[in-house]
Structure formats: structure tokens, C-alpha cells
Specification:
Layout lengths: L1 E6 L12 H8 L4 E6 L12 E3 L7 E3 L1 H19 L6 E10 L2 H8 L3 E6 L7 H6 L3 E4 L9 H12 L9 H5 L18 E2 L2 E2 L9 H19 L1 H4 L6 H12 L9
Parallel strand pairs: 1-2, 1-6, 5-6, 5-7
Antiparallel strand pairs: 3-4, 8-9
Helix pairs in contact: 3-5
Bound molecules: adenine.
Amino acid sequence: MKIDILTLFPQMFQGPFSEGIFKRAIDRKLVQVNIHNIRDYTHDRHHTVDDYAYGGGAGMLLKPEPIFEAVEKVKQDFHLEKGAKEPPVILLSPQGRLFSQQIAEELSGCIHLILICGRYEGIDERVREHLATDEVSIGDYVLGGGELAAMVVVDAVARLLPGVLGSDASARDDSHTTRLLEYPQYTHPEVYRAWAVPEVLLSGNHAQIDKWRRQQAILRTLKRRPDLLDKAELSPEERQLVDSFKKAKATPEVLK
Ligand code: ADE
């Protein structure tokens, strides 16, 4: 997958993509990330990227021209290379659709993504209307710009690409991929400060272990994020278990 990121602050991307899983994925050419400075697509002496809003109001807006030109250039380069179809052009902004594991999965099926990081007080509306094909927010809070949001999106998408994680199972069992929160996990030592690892995990009985993990995942989701359970794929028995907990208004002991 090729990812082109348009930003006014290319330096911000140096850390996250040069460590760990991500670096390995880049080194192994599973993903290619190109950072483009929007300022490089200006033509005036001062490299102007922002200007006052028509109609007044505080703050500056990102101008449309350098952003359109940057997107057109990266599309052109990619098309020449691959003869591919139009990639999604995603504007990161607090006004976008809320990013989720489903959106990460959807984007992980693309061979090319273009991300535009908004900055300052806003962006000329024509970018939103005539250039971006999608607008994504990573949460209901306002960041200084789209850069951190772009890193979040790229991280969540890249780890879903085949071969990026050590084992495909680790992505598959994640919280949110299963639409349930993850079950509790333990490593050595078996007893730490008198806190013992649950007996069942030491039993070697894999059917029992799977059952326990599934129940724990459901109970944890019910306790912390009951909203997720509506979309989770549960067996009729599991659904019944959840419903009975929901109906019994008193919090069951297991949920404490
Ligand atoms: N830019 C500023 N805030 C943002 C958010 N919450 N998500 C995506 N981009 C943003």
C-alpha cells in the first residue's frame, strides 16, 4: 500500500514511522509512506499557504491552490506508475466521520491513500467539496491539526495489511476487530505479589480456555462499552447471557 500524506509539518512524522512494527513494514516494502510539504506547492515568493476568511472572522484558512496541486501531483505519479483507479482522498478534520476499526478495515483494502492534514482555523471549503472524497475525525475533540490524526489512521490501517504483524491472529483477535473488548491476558510469573493467574489458563484445556476468554471478553465489553455489544456477533446463548445481565438491574458480581 502507498500512502501520501500532505502536511505543513513534515517533521512531525519522523518519529512514529521510524520505529517498531511500522519501520519493519516500510523496510520490507509492505507499505510506503510519502510525506509532502504543502508549502512546496506554492508559487509566490513567500510560499503562502493561508489567508483571511472572506466575510471576516478570526483566524486564517488554508488556501485551496497548493492542496489541489499537491493531490493532483501525487495522483499523477501513482497513475503513471500503476495505471490504478482513483484513490480515496481523506481530509482529517474534527468534522469528519468518526474513525473506527471498521473504517480502518475498509481503508486497508485500498492500494493507495491520500491524506490531507488540515491546520490553523480551517481549510477552504472547496477542498472539502471538490477534492476530498472522505473526511475523517479521530474523536470528538479538537487537535492543533490533522497530523496526529493521520498518524493514528495510518497506524491502524497499516497493521491490518498482510504480513505487517508477526502473526495474522494477533490482528484478528484484537479488541474491536471482534467488536468485543479483549479478554484479560497474563504472562509469567504464575503468581506475582500473591496475585495468581486464573487457574483455567494453566489447565492446558484449550476448549475451556477459549470459552473462558470469550466470556471474559463479553463481560468486559458489557461492563465498559455496552454500546459495542449491539453490533457484536454473539451466539444465541451469549446474547441471552447478555440480556439476562442487562435485565437484572443489579450489577452482577462478575461485573465488579
Ligand atoms: N484535526 C483537528 N482535530 C481533529 C480530529 N479530532 N480528528 C481529525 N483531524 C483533526
